[in-house]
Specification:
Largest sheet: 8 strands, parallel, barrel
Helix content: 25-40%
Number of helices: 9
Shape: globular
Bound molecules: D-xylitol-5-phosphate, zinc ion
Distance between the termini: 13 Å
Number of strands: 8
Structural class: alpha/beta
């Protein structure tokens, strides 16, 4: 499977986000990763659909929207209308509401013609989301606890990645996107890919490097 690099804009300067996107467009980035935080599901607050809407005309790259928010169903329309290509919601935010909330939310995302993803935190067994592997276009295995960029990669998640890929294969979805997010860098990207992930989110390791294009190609090697 080809590796896709989704650069997280969380650690970018929001006042020059347009320029950042334009620069990323020329550096071999496959997707732009938007970290949406509500100050409740995770500590910080970042932005709503307006940010994605305003940036949409500036980039042809797929917008990979990561909702770290409570009650995600309330925001799907805003991000779908803003031009998101993929919207990922957290298992933890859905399971606390009801048994069917996660499945209903993934179906709601798809009803807008947008790809749907489900994310699990490092301490949540990947088996918890096996029931929606058939419905989801992508699963996101967090390799840090969400909320902040620049954290250290949690290597214990490598085993979850392997389990996720094996399960996808076992249900005939061997080529589904398995995304990893948090602490991804050239030093660990090979083992992440070897474990079975094919979409790598990278924020600080790219944006803090002195050559974005070189770092992105190293993440792919
Ligand atoms: C954390 C976000 C990640 C983070 C990745 O809650 O979901 O996307 O910004 O940033 P790095 O690559 O710096 O760990
Ligand atoms: Zn993210």
């Amino acid at each position: 499977m080809n590796t896709k690099i989704s650069v997280s804009t969380l650690s970018a300067d929001f006042s020059t986000m347009g320029e950042t996107l334009k620069k990323l467009e020329t550096c071999g980035t496959d997707m732009i990763h938007f970290d949406v935080m509500d100050g409740s599901f995770v500590g910080p607050i970042t932005y709503g659909g307006q940010m994605v809407k305003n940036l949409r005309p500036l980039s042809k790259l797929p917008f990979d929207v990561h909702l770290m928010i409570e009650h995600p169903q309330t925001q799907i329309k805003f991000f779908a209308d803003a031009g998101a290509d993929i919207i990922t919601v957290h298992y933890g935010a859905c399971a606390k509401i009801s048994e069917s909330y996660l499945k209903d939310t993934l179906e709601l995302i798809k009803s807008y013609g947008v790809k749907c993803g489900v994310a699990v935190n490092p301490d949540v067994p990947v088996e918890n989301i096996f029931p929606v592997f058939g419905l989801a276009d992508m699963v996101l295995l967090m390799t840090v606890f969400p909320g902040y960029g620049g954290q250290k990669f949690i290597p214990e998640v490598l085993d979850k990645i392997k389990k996720a890929r094996e399960y996808a294969l076992s249900i005939g979805k061997g080529d589904m996107d398995i995304e990893v997010d948090g602490g991804v860098c050239p030093e660990n990207s090979a083992q992440i890919r070897k474990a079975g992930a094919n979409v790598l989110v990278a924020g600080t390791s790219v944006l803090n490097s002195d050559n974005w294009a070189a770092t992105i190609s190293k993440l792919r090697q």
